[in-house]
Design a protein that fits this description.
Elements: H1 15-23, E1 27-30, H2 32-41, H3 44-47, E2 56-59, H4 66-76, E3 83-85, E4 120-123, E5 132-137, H5 152-160, E6 167-175, E7 181-186, E8 190-193, E9 196-199, H6 200-208, E10 213-223, E11 227-236, H7 244-257, E12 266-269, H8 283-291, H9 305-318
Parallel strand pairs: 1-2, 2-3, 11-12
Antiparallel strand pairs: 4-5, 5-6, 6-7, 8-9, 10-11
Helix pairs in contact: 2-4, 8-9
């Protein structure tokens, strides 16, 4: 096993690909956030390295949008490496939903089906199986958590109070006609816009579908009429200009992909987004910025300066 904890862009943006070539890495496992950063930097960096030793690609940490999935398959996997999009949690102790490489037919953006021996369902508030709702694990599994240290009651309330005899993951999901699971992200990331429930992942995926966009993070902010308004933080691909015209174009692109109700009220272009050291976007901090609140805990950030810059830019935009 080869572990690398340094930055992916030092001493240059070909760092990962040079390491894969140098050490003959066969399995590459990373987060969709990192993949979208690679997309922003361009294909010339992976093209400059010999990646023929790779046989398997994996993603983890958050749902991967179809555009990032397709990019991962081509410049990195050259169309010959299976992509294993894995859904699991620290609490589950193991991968729970994933394709089996070479066996499961994959779909860009879908974690596909439960791992053998795992029983998963999409349930509504009453516990009925539905096509879109909450992701639940309905039978015990070998690596399941048994409590929260020193707080048994919180364990029961957090994971077992939603339904009888089913584990509440806290994630939204949907299943298609083939029974494949599509993870929509945390249910606390669902926005209530004028009575309509909109998943942040849906809007982010629509934004990243635009050819100018490398990465996007969507949060809700209080609105006196709609309850919540949509605020989007967008990073564009290198070489693209950030103009008011592009903002309008992106808003219309979301309308075209989802509908008028999902049109972002605000779009802020950002050179980078606040991420943890494992590559997850800290949407909690983006919500603080959009709401004009004091920033919360930033100790897990890879680069705390990113938040300060974003806060300054957003306040300047609002003034």
């Amino acid at each position: 096993m080869f572990l690398y904890e340094g930055a992916p862009d030092w001493p240059d943006r070909g760092r990962f690909w040079k390491l894969i070539q140098k050490y003959g890495v066969t399995v590459f496992y990373t987060a969709p956030t990192a993949i979208r950063a690679f997309m922003r930097w361009g294909t010339e960096w992976p093209a400059a390295a010999d990646l023929r030793t790779l046989r398997l690609l994996g993603t983890v940490g958050e749902p991967i949008n179809p555009e990032a999935w397709m990019w991962y398959q081509e410049p990195i996997g050259h169309g010959r490496c299976p992509i294993v999009d894995t859904w699991w949690q620290t609490e589950t102790g193991a991968i729970m939903i994933t394709p089996l490489p070479g066996i499961t037919e994959t779909k860009p953006g879908s974690a596909t089906v439960p791992f053998p021996g795992i029983s998963a369902e999409v349930l509504n508030e009453k516990g009925d199986a539905v096509s879109a709702g909450y992701l639940a694990i309905t039978r015990p599994w070998p690596a399941m958590l048994r409590t929260i240290y020193g707080d048994d009651e919180r364990y029961r309330q957090q994971y077992w109070s939603q339904w009888k005899d089913a584990y509440f993951t806290g994630d939204g999901a949907k299943r298609d006609q083939n029974g494949y699971f599509w993870i929509l992200g945390r249910v606390d990331d669902v926005l209530n816009v004028a009575g309509h429930r909109i998943g942040t992942m849906e809007v982010e995926s629509a934004l990243v579908d635009h050819p100018a966009v490398a990465e996007a993070a969507v949060v809700g902010k209080a609105h006196e009429l709609k309850g919540q308004a949509i605020a989007a933080f967008v990073t564009v691909k290198e070489g693209r200009e950030t103009t008011e015209r592009l903002k309008d174009e992106l808003k219309q692109h979301v309308v075209k992909k989802i509908g008028a109700i999902a049109r972002p009220d605000d779009i802020l272009f950002a050179a980078d987004l606040p991420k943890t050291r494992s590559g997850k976007i800290m949407r909690r901090l983006l919500r603080d910025i959009a709401e004009g609140r004091a920033l919360g805990d930033t100790t897990t950030l890879a680069d705390p300066a990113v938040v300060a810059r974003l806060k300054g830019e957003y306040e300047e935009k609002e003034s």
